Each structure stands twice: as C-alpha cells, then as structure tokens.
Amino acid sequence: MTATIDLKHLQKSFGKQQVLKDINLTVNAGEIVGLIGPSGAGKSTVIKTMLGMEKADGGQALILQTTMPNRLVLGKIGYMAQSDALYEDLTARENLAFFGRMKGLNGKKLKDEISHVSQVVDLTSDLDKLVSGFSGGMKRRLSLAISLLGSAQLLILDEPTVGIDPALRRQIWHELGVIRDQGRSILVTTHVMAEAEATDRVALLIGGKIVAFDQPQKLEQSYDVSSIEDVFLKAEKEAQQ
Ligand SMILES: Nc1ncnc2c1ncn2[C@@H]1O[C@H](COP(=O)(O)OP(=O)(O)O)[C@@H](O)[C@H]1O
Ligand SMILES: [Mg+2]
To answer: Which residue CA neighbors atom 26 of ligand 1 most closely?
Structure first.
C-alpha cells in the first residue's frame, strides 16, 4: 500500500509548550483516517506542521511521497483549514471560481465542478449571495466545497462539519466515502464521535502523542467498550494517570 501521508516522529513546540511530542501517523490511498483528541490537543498543529505552515522542530512529514514542506505538493492537496479563508466581498460562486482557477480548472470543467461541489454541501441556491452574509455553517460548507474542487488525490480537512446540521453532515460523509472509494485519501479531524466511527482508521491524539491508532471497531475491542466516545474517555483517563 502507498502511504499518501507518512508522519515520523513529528515534533512541535510553541515556546515552552511542547504540543507535539512524537507524532507517527500514516494515511493510505483509499482510506479515511480520523484524527481525534480533546480541544487544544494539537490536531490543527499536526496538520499545519505537516503542511509546513508551522515549522517542525523534529521528525519528518512525507506527503505524496515527498518530504514536506514542498510548494508543489501543496498544490495537489485539497486542504480545508479550521478557520475559513474566504473572500467575504465576493459571492460563493466567485470564491469557487477563484480557487478553482488557482487549481488549474477553467471553462466547462470549472463550471461542472462548481456545480458538483455546491450540490455536495447544499449551497446551490446560495451561490450568488455575498459570503459576508453567510452564517458560520454556510462558510464552513463553502470552505469544504472549495477543498473538493480539482479532485485532489489527498484531502486534509480540519473540522469540516462544525456548525453543519446532521442531515447535511451525513450527505457530506457519503461524498467522503465516494472519494475514498475512488482510491483517494482523506485525513479529517473531528470532535464528533459518530464521525470518528465512520472512518477507516482513527488516531487518538492525547498528550502530544498518538496513543491509539486503528480501525474504530478494533479500538473498541481493545479498550473493551462499545463506542469511540468511550474509547476516547477511557484513553483520556489513562493519560491523566
Ligand atoms: N501559533 C501558535 N502559537 C502559540 N500556541 C499555539 C499556536 N497554535 C496552537 N497553539 C497551542 O497549541 C495547542 C494545540 O492547539 P491546536 O493544534 O489548535 O489544538 P486542536 O486543533 O487539537 O484543538 C493549544 O494549546 C494552542 O493554544
Ligand atoms: Mg483544531
């Protein structure tokens, strides 16, 4: 199997605070990996460090078999940050067109992709509204739609479904499943435990380390509990001891 993401002993401190102590994580082609952990555990820092937006203090991040940071690789990834980076004084469609062109899309291809990703996040009827009037959830959905443009081999999604209602959340996860089945890879952070259950493997980040990393069912077995939420609680408790 080809690892699309391979993190080896990644470390990152902010001042005296060592947020990432020793991060080892792989994401394979055709796989959805969930990264979960308490708020402030360092999930976003894992992502920013592997992408080179924060400078690693140690270890190595390989993405698409290339040592990061690497500008060319960044262009091949669909990345959705935890905070939305949208042009508020443009409409949703204009945002999609702008970011789509940056990914090399144009003409009919761009139009078709905008139409498809808008459907996935249920923004079709809001496309010509200014983003400045969007709710938090709508901005999240637009950011997700942008990350889906260009059919990247790898999607890195930082809390993509915050503020999104359950029905649409399900629809989005269905699309993520389709993407996975196309042999593409997804790394997704979430604090919604039901979403963690829907991944192929889930990594639990506590105390700067990945303390557990396996298929959700296998984690439940090895922790002798019946849900990922209970795995999470048990692992957190163990880490505090
Ligand atoms: N740029 C930064 N400067 C200083 N501290 C930071 C910075 N980014 C994150 N942190 C700290 O690192 C820790 C992990 O943050 P973060 O990765 O955002 O956690 P998570 O995404 O799991 O909620 C937090 O304590 C946060 O305050
Ligand atoms: Mg975060």
So the answer is: 40
Residue for token pair 């796989």: 31
pLDDT at residue number 31: 97
In this structure, are residues 205 and 10 in contact, taking their beta carbons and an 8 Å threshold? no
Structure tokens at 140: 């999240």
Mean pLDDT of the chain: 95
Mean pLDDT over residues 78-98, rounded?
96
**Could you give the domains of the chain?**
1-76+154-165+186-241 (3.40.50.300), 83-151 (no CATH)
- Cβ atoms of 188 and 35 within 8 Å: the answer is yes
In one letter, which amino acid is 236? E
Q: Cα–Cα distance between 221 and 216 in angstroms, integer?
A: 9
> Residue of the nearest CA to atom 10 in ligand 1?
14
Q: What are phi and psi of 229, to 5 degrees?
A: -60, -40
The set of protein residues with a Cβ atom below 6 angstroms from ligand 1 is: 14, 19, 37, 39-45
Separation between Cα atoms, residue 212 and residue 128, nearest integer Å: 44
Mean pLDDT over 168-192 rounds to 94
169 pLDDT higher than 80:
yes
Category of 59 on φ-ψ map: left (φ > 0), alpha (ψ -120 to 50) or beta: left
The tokens describing 11, both together, are: 């470390």
Q: Which ligand is nearest to the CA of 42?
A: 1
